Structure formats: structure tokens, C-alpha cells
Amino acid sequence: MLKLHEKSVEDTVALMADIGRNARAAARPLAVASTKAKNAALVAMADAILRNEQAILDANAIDMSNGEEAGLSGSFMDRLKLTPSRIKAMADGIREIAALKDPVGDVIAAWDRPNGLHIERVRTPLGVIGVIYESRPNVTADAGALCLKAGNPVILRGGSDSLNSSAVIHACMVEGLKEAGLPENAIQLVPTTDRAAVGEMLKGLGGNLDVIIPRGGKSLVGRVQTEARVPVFAHLEGICHLYVDRSAKLDMAVNIAVNAKMRRTGVCGAAETLLVDRAVAATHLVPILEALRAAGCEIHADQDVLQAFSDASPATDADWVTEYLDAIIAVKLVDGVGEAIEHIETFSSHHTEAIIAEDAQVVERFFNEIDSAILLHNASTQFADGGEFGMGAEIGIATGKMHARGPVGVEQLTSFKYRVRGSGQVRP
User: Fold this and answer.
1) Own/partner pairs, 400-404, CB within 8 angstroms, 24+ separation
2) pLDDT 10s digits, 310-349
3) Which of 275, 271, 284 is nearest to 344 (CA)?
4) Residue range 118-149, pLDDT digits in tens
5) CB count, 10 Å around CB of 418?
6) Which whole-number Å values give the CA distances from 240 to 271, 275, 295, 347, in the listed order?
7) How many C-beta neighbours within 10 Å does residue 184 have?
8) Helices 35-51 and 138-149: crossing angle, nearest 10°?
9) Where does residue 8 fall: left (phi above 0), alpha (psi -120 to 50 degrees), or beta otherwise?
10) Which of the listed CATH numbers 3.40.220.10, 3.30.390.10, 2.40.50.140, 3.40.605.10 matches domain 9-233+404-420?
11) DSSP 108-145
12) If we measure between CA atoms, which residue out of 290, 227, 220 comes closest to residue 254?
């Protein structure tokens, strides 16, 4: 298991410098590692995780106990909790990543110039990646596996709340690297809860860190985006919307609304705002809200909704910009798809939005006019997930517009270079 380092700030700075140098030293051998070796390491990691299930559960029990003593919220505890099924899903996700096509060396485009030069654009690893995350110990496995497949060393800095769980999972990842003969420092877990470690990562570890990916709450991501001196892939929060159009089928709308909100309330793809077309308020609104209440959801409603459904609390301005990550949803009546789009573009975090509708023209307008990373038609917002997209897993959902957007999987963890082949050409 990882040996915790709890000393002075100066010691932490020195520790992080060593971690950065070790990651950089692993970058070149990992960039040229064969697909066979990377896949062998991933399969060995998955096997080690299943073999060490009880050790992972025991470590997680310590984290859960500490979380209860610290008064962590229910949604936070849900993200922290590991079960045999979640551990199996972690291992399955790693195997799925192993089965993916290796992006490194893939020729994205190729063309010939009139002077005879042949030009290729080829995928390459990004370099050393830093992942800073909270609560979710499964990110240790997901991020480590994805970065390895894309040929990138990774430095993982999990939250103090999940460090015991992450340490055992990380040991399984290192075991897989050893079995495949790959550098053990290709996947490193920061062995300290000292916040100075995050500060050192944001500074770039002396030029040894190429990109940072934060995965956590608004304060964490906001700090990273404000202070980082290296590029950042981030989403600030998941204020996701579900719009029920006048053309929506009632049964579908009910089922999707309950799933989008209540399947797992603590994930970033959970619906936080429900918009219902005023034209079907008499037929659709109450059945949807009754189903949500029966599932245990608290409803914050605008005045129009309150008149039709009294078992709700009045919505405030804050409700439209809140990522609850809990069994709470804000509900509003809108005058058709136009007002729905206006509301979403005003209040959304541009993460994920869904429309339930049978009118193809309305769906196309929704898709064309809303500028969010993920848009869904007649499907739950909870499909906003790299695994569900066939990526095996994801490090997070990026809502920016540079380099990566949406689920960040193996392809998004690569850059590219140009290879130009000639036959003696010189430029006139």
C-alpha cells in the first residue's frame, strides 16, 4: 500500500518535484510502448483489482467511516462508496479500455502536395497529465488506465476523503505495470493530503506537467482554472436540463425524467432542471412530478407549476444555477422549445441537455441552437458518460471548446504531429 507522506510544506514541494521528474522520465518509454504491452498491463490491472476486492472494500470502509464523522453529504458519500458491483465495473472498464483501438500512431489525415511531399497528421501522447479529483476512488482506475492506453504518464491527486481506497487501487495499477514491464512511475498517486501538493501541480512541477484535468466540485475546478500555469481540461459543474416538448410521449417523459434525476443524483449528468412545455401542462406536468415525488425527489417549482402541483417548494433565482447533486430538481413551465432554449442558454453550464419530443423539427432546432457539450433526444441525461459512449471510461466531461469537449477518453488524451516525406525537395 502507498506510504503516506505527512511532513512540512518544504518536504511536500520536494516530494512533488520528484514525482514530476519521475513522470517525465517515464514519458518517452511509455510513448513508444507497444499496444501489446499496454494492453497486457491493463488486463493485469483489472485482474489485480478483482483479486484485491476485499482489501479495496476494507480501505473504503475506513474512508466511509471518516466521511460520516466529517459530516459529508449523502451525494458525496454515494460517490465515495465502493461495492463489489462497483469494483467489478471498475475492472470491466479497464478491460474495455484495453479492447479499444490504440490511438497512438493513428494517421488522422494524409495528403499529397503538388511538389511531391506526402504529409500525414499522426496521433501522439499529450505528455505528462495531472488529474486532481475528489471523492470518487474509481477515478484512480479510470484515469490511470485511460492515460496509459494513450501513452501518457499520469500523476493522480485524489481527495483526502478517498485516499485509503485510492491507495489500494493504485497498488493494483502498479502491479499491472510491473507485470507488463512498463515504468512503474507511469501511474503515480500523490501520497499526501497536504494542499501544497495541489499548488505545486498547478505550477507545473518545474515544467514536467503538460496538462491538468480537475474532476470535482465547483471550488476545486474554479481554483484549478484560476491558478493553473499549464493547460486545463475542465467542466465547472453539471447544470443539466431536461425539456419535455408538447410532442413528447407521456410514458417516455415520465420514465426519462425519473431516471435522469434519480438514478444517481450525485453524478454530473444528473438532471437539475426540468422544463415542461406549457402546451402539455394539463396532461404531462402532474404525472411527471408525481413520479419524481414518489421516487423521493424534492421539487422546487416556479409559480405556474405550483398552481398545478402544490407538493413543491417555491423556486428562487438560485435554483436555476444550482448543481444540487442531490434528490432535488427545479421545475419551470415554458412556452415551447424557443423559451426552453433561451432558458438553457441563459443558465446552463453547457454540460448536458436533453429533449423529449416526437417533432423532428423541434429536435433539430434544439440540437442546432443549444451550445452544450452533449445533447440527447428521447434519452436520459445520465448517459453523459464515457463508458456509455463506448470509450471504456472517462476522466471527465469537458465543457470547454479547446482540444477536448464532452467525455475525455483515450483519443482526447492525445495530440498530433505532422510527418512529411519527401524525395529530395528543396523550397524555391
Assistant:
1) 400/233, 400/234, 400/235, 402/231, 403/231, 403/233, 404/233
2) 999 999 999 999 999 899 999 999 999 999 999 999 999 9
3) 275
4) 999 999 999 999 999 987 899 999 999 999 99
5) 9
6) 5, 11, 19, 9
7) 13
8) 170
9) beta
10) 3.40.605.10
11) EEEEE-TTS-EEEEEEEE---EEEEE-S-THHHHHHHH
12) 290
- Parallel, antiparallel, or unpaired for β 352-356 and 240-244? parallel
CATH architecture group of domain 240-383: 3-Layer(aba) Sandwich (3.40)
Q: Return the number of other C-beta atoms located less than 10 Å from residue 156's C-beta.
A: 23
Amino acid identity, position 238: G
Cα–Cα distance between 354 and 363 in angstroms, integer? 10
Q: 3-state class of 328 per DSSP?
A: strand
Please give the model's pTM, rounded to 2 decimal places.
0.83
Amino acid at 130: G
Which residues are CB-contacts of 164 (< 8 A; sequence separation ≥ 6)?
59, 60, 62, 63
